[in-house]
Design brief:
10 helices; elongated; 171 residues; mainly alpha
Length: 171
């Protein structure tokens, strides 16, 4: 896929979508190379360190930045950039990218969700909960939002709220 998107870019270097899609292809190539993240916390840190240093992630960022330069309102490119920053554990940059998505598409639940996880990883549980509540307002059956809310409530020793949210997630 990377080869074909490169050809499309060579044909039309002003095609923001081709840059965005090639960036996504680089990102997917890294995931295909490293596989799924392990659930064990210590192993996850080792995995993340290996994952976040792949050159393809930098190539993806370059393409996504070019797509945004060509079309600043290209929400898909901002979202892709947020995912790459998230995978590189650059959470403030990921949050900024997801803010750009939400400025363009204010009801994008996936952007709210990944941004909530980034906030949570930074220790900003209140912003994470605000995002998760916004998702539930927009999409009341978004089970992952309830599940993440439950986990955050448990981390905050708010067990009653955590139990409620986990119960809602599995309904």
């Amino acid at each position: 896929a990377i080869k074909y998107f490169t050809q499309a870019i060579e044909t039309d270097p002003r095609c923001a979508r081709a840059y965005s899609l090639r960036g996504a292809a680089y990102w997917l190539k890294v995931w295909a190379t490293v596989g799924h993240a392990p659930s064990d916390c210590r192993m996850y840190e080792i995995f993340r360190n290996k994952f976040s240093n792949h050159d393809e992630l930098d190539l993806a960022l370059n393409d996504l930045k070019e797509a945004i330069r060509l079309d600043p309102r290209f929400a898909e490119a901002h979202y892709g950039m947020g995912l790459v920053y998230f995978d590189k554990a650059l959470y403030p940059d990921a949050i900024t990218s997801f803010n750009a998505v939400l400025a363009i598409e204010p009801e994008d639940c996936d952007a709210y969700y990944t941004q909530a996880i980034a906030y949570s990883k930074m220790g900003d549980k209140q912003h994470a909960l605000n995002n998760l509540n916004k998702i539930i307002e927009l999409m009341p059956d978004y089970a992952d939002a309830f599940f993440q809310k439950g986990l955050i409530h448990y981390e905050l020793d708010e067990n009653k709220e955590g139990l409620y949210d986990i119960t809602e997630a599995i309904k």
